[in-house]
Amino acid sequence: MLNLLKYFSAKKEDIFFTYQGINSPQWTPCRYDALSAEGFQKNVFAFRAINLISRGISSIPVSIRSCHDRKEDEFLTNVFNRPNESQTKSSFLENLVNYLLISGNAFVNCDNENKLRCLRTDRVDIVPNKSKTAVESYVYSVDLSKFPVEKKDMLHLKFFNPLNDWYGFSPLHAALRAIDQHNEMSKHNLSILQNGGRPSGCLVVKNSENLTEEQRQQLRSDIRDAYEGTANSGRVMVLEGGLEWKEMGLSPRDLDFNTGKNLAAREIALAFGVPPLLMGIHGDSAFANYKEARLHFWEDTIVPLAEFIRLEFSSWLSVRFGRQVEMVFDLDAVHALISRRENLWNKISSADFLTINEKREILGYPPMKEQK
After folding, report:
1. CA distance 266 to 26
2. DSSP assigned state of 202
3. Which helix (H) or strand (E) holds 269?
């Protein structure tokens, strides 16, 4: 039992010892480094959502085809499958989508040797033209060096941003407040483990005189030694001599941290378009099973983002290399979309009013020379 009587003598005044908390929320600043650190590196659900999307897109086979005869452009397909000396197509696309989801922007540079590289988005500055209506060039800055890049040598993919003409708005930015809440709840739980049992309230000393500063410091020290720390977690506080403990803060049960963390995790998943079931969020039952959730994820998130990337690359590659080409994702090779593809094939094959060539065109195949 902690004997506190030695710190005061009788007097008709009350003495209060309180713990003060923060009085307003402190949100993460919307800079690339802060977004990356708090969102991607420290939040497991944002990390999982971003990786599900980027690895899904990077797993799709890619080819570059001519827009005239639909034949594969072997040179550009090889360039894309081996974009540079240190990356394959999969790691290149994964980096590109990660940058896009974290910052809302992705910059792809093509050098004189036709090597493709994803540049870190916070190192690229846009140089507008004189009328401020279009991009004139880019500047890549690393350490203290600056390298100008011509417009034709840089592909800038960006999401819509209602408040900026030049840079995109990321899903991570939209989910930032939910990420902050989830991170703070995790920090609180860790703090409980590391500093468990710390009194959260005020100690009322009744009928006593004011303590000296030395007595106050000694009292605080004895309270810490007896009740703070993981070894003392849950220890019952025993008071005597007119002492009274008044709870001033809410307990984790009152705050309902588990429910709050799940709600924050769902908001994070919602911002990225990932079904909570795929991220292992407890209590989610929006889909009948994992297979249905996975199909929904691919149809509503992966495929539209892949189409956005495909069209941007097709337009840029055509200008950069001086011939009309098209980037093609082979969605037939995606296992998650097999059921959708089977339904389409069954509908097309049973359509008696279509010719074979019309059916082949719908399915993305070149026409046959002779119709049957």
Report:
1. 21
2. E
3. helix 257-272
Instruction: Give pTM, 2 decimals.
Output: 0.75
Are 367 and 357 a contacting pair, CB within 8 Å? yes
Closest Cα partner for 115 from 152, 168, 153, 141?
153
Provide the angle, in degrees to the nearest 10, between the axes of the packed helices 89-103 and 44-58.
Answer: 140
Q: How far is CA 330 from CA 65, 87, 96, 182, 340, in A?
A: 12, 21, 19, 37, 14
Least confident of 59-63, 252-256, 258-262: 252-256
Of 123, 98, 87, give the one whose Cα is nearest residue 36.
Answer: 98
Strand 201-208: give its sheet, edge to edge: 13-18, 201-208, 243-247
| Single-letter amino acid, residue 342 | E
CB 250 within 8 A of CB 29: no
Measured in degrees and rounded to the nearest 5, phi and psi for residue 104 equal 85, 0
| Average pLDDT in the chain | 81
Alpha-carbon span 349 to 341, nearest angstrom: 12
> Looking at residues 144-153, what average pLDDT do you find?
93
Q: What is the DSSP string of 44-58?
A: HHHHHHHHHHHHHHH
Tell me how far apart the alpha carbons of residues 370 and 372 are, in angstroms, rounded to a whole number: 7
Between CA 201 and CA 50 the distance in angstroms is 41
- DSSP state, residue 327: E
124-128 and 116-119: which strand pairing?
Answer: unpaired
pLDDT of residue 217: 78
CA-CA-CA-CA dihedral for 309, 365, 337, 90, to nearest 10: -40
